[in-house]
Design a protein that fits this description.
The structure is a homodimer of 271-residue chains. By secondary structure, chain A is mostly beta strands. The first copy, chain A, has helices at residues 9-14, 40-52, 184-190, 198-201, 221-227; strands spanning 17-20, 23-27, 60-68, 76-86, 90-99, 102-112, 120-121, 149-155, 170-176, 208-217, 232-237, 240-242, 245-253, 259-269. The radius of gyration of chain A is 18 Å and the shape is globular. The termini of chain A are far apart.
């Protein structure tokens, strides 16, 4: 694709150029820089994008697991997406991201054809004020990607641990900044935009890094289209911090009370 | 390995014979049969076993994602485990299970060297009666693997939907049957032994199948050794049932209140 003045920075960041046979080239984007290297969410989205663009793709994303196997350097990379097994209504994928002839990240995914069945929602939409009743958090200057999201915290702002509740939970309204209609790629990236829970639980900055991330997409394309660029509600918490790793789990809701995605990750922390 | 009269059925079920270069042969086991093919938990454990036995393995299991890509037939299979990337303290894996020259299941995993750090537990151990205060559920005759687990339900027995609470949650004490000391492989299998939440939520039997499963191991080898063959407490629930798929999330606790594992899966259901 050709980036123009009207291309959203997210589309530029996840853009891949097909080079044939499930192979692509891509590049990191300054608007989604992290403390070191790129924000993992855009890498997750780029890997999912390699599947979505693949000519053999069946159905829409159902699950995505991303392994951040090594530090990713700012600059170019190649991606290869491969359909490992294709069934009648589900398809299983393996995708690798290579830099300097080594795999720096890889993903597995399921795409699936959805159809109407019995349905019910067990999770409960949280009782929160509307997004526009809360001021957005200012971006963190040295973490570029925080300027590419609007975050309105109801509770659980990082760096202000709630020692009274002893909880790592955050509740916040979130969307791309500048606003952009939600699609599977943007949702995949957003699922990695919850700050590491250790910074909510403990007022100390230590090196951290997501090791592996799994997202389940509950929304179909029609629900995402209805969502447009309105804020989504995120709820994230950790269950356990121990021996250099913690888990983190989150829900992403539409304002109308549709559960759009659930996401889980295991994160390294230094001390 | 050679199975003897004293070999536990689980060890027989996950036994792999190395054939060199990260390749193994294995076979399904009648004691862990499911409605069709093998119980997914033993497949997950066998795939993890291929990593644990691998001569290049660094550290202990931290995460495991298994894709049940196609039906697995009763009988033999080959497994290939490959270290995709090895770092100083973490290692990322890709493992495939092949039957009839096609990938029927595959997994990604992280093994890691654990070390002491600051730690805290956010999740709360449920208030439950002791295991021996509850009678075990009888095995389900046509589902062999249910005879290989002892399950003592505190709440959320499948087939008896709790329509009052409208919850898919189950709380139960679980262990291998016959009892066997817990290790990473047995814990990996146990994480798939929660009945599909749809059978807790709705009193109707429909075809279901786990599509993909992710487990995070919070326990280290020392904690597992202390656990021995005592029952663990499982808590499972679903968040959303929609368009032929639901998610399912669970915690596995020691009786002493250690969080041993958390696990998530996305499950297909027919109608």
């Amino acid at each position: 694709m050709t980036a123009t003045d009207t291309t959203h920075r997210f589309d530029a960041a996840v853009a891949l150029t097909p080079t044939g046979d499930g192979m692509y080239t891509g590049s990191t984007h300054a608007g989604y820089g992290n403390m070191v290297g790129p924000f993992g969410g855009v890498i997750a989205a780029a890997l999912l994008g390699a599947i979505i663009q693949h000519p053999q793709r069946l159905g829409d994303p159902l699950s995505l697991t991303v392994h951040f196997a090594a530090p990713i350097a700012d600059g170019g990379y190649t991606v290869e997406a491969k359909a490992v097994r294709t069934n009648r209504t589900t398809q299983h994928w393996y995708v690798t991201l290579v830099q300097d002839d080594e795999v720096a990240a890889f993903a597995t995914a399921v795409t699936a054809v959805r159809r109407d069945t019995w349905q019910t929602l067990d999770a409960v939409f949280p009782d929160v004020p509307a997004a526009d009743a809360i001021a957005p958090m200012p971006a963190i200057a040295r973490v570029a990607w925080t300027g590419s999201y609007e975050m309105r915290f109801v509770d659980g702002l990082p760096g202000a641990p709630d020692t009274a509740s002893e909880s790592s939970e955050s509740l916040l309204w979130m969307r791309d900044q500048p606003p952009r209609p939600l699609d599977f790629l943007a949702l995949a990236a957003l699922c990695d935009a919850f700050f590491p829970r250790i910074f909510v639980r403990r007022p100390k900055w230590v090196p951290i890094g997501t090791v592996a991330l799994t997202t389940y997409f509950h929304a179909d394309a029609a629900q995402l289209a209805v969502q447009g660029s309105a804020p989504v509600l995120g709820r994230a918490r950790a269950l356990n911090f121990r021996q250099g790793f913690f888990d983190q789990t989150a829900e992403v809701w539409s304002a109308a009370g549709d559960l759009l995605a659930t996401t889980h990750q295991v994160v390294y922390y230094k001390e």
